[in-house]
User: What shape does this take?
Amino acid sequence: MNKRKIGKKLEDYVVERIREILHDSLIRPTKNSGASSELGDIRCDKFIIECKKRNTKDVVLKEDVWTKLINEMPLGSTRVPVYILENKNKKRFAVLNLEDFFNLIKQ
Assistant: This one.
């Protein structure tokens, strides 16, 4: 299975779960997943989401991927950037800025 299909499974799972939770059928994978004018891997009004599947036990937050995600955000955007990682054992993690986490708790 090619790398794109492996990552697509993670994206599809995340989209399905967010749709269930937010009751929003408009949430979807972005076209060409980051290779188009859409931001991130998943289109959602509340978040800018980047998904990465790793074929290792450990997952690593790649600062350049995080920085790219932050830099792509439009000025004044209220969307929260989230970096979702999955390891080879299918354990999934969501990474976000600590201040964004605190703001989500307040809501």
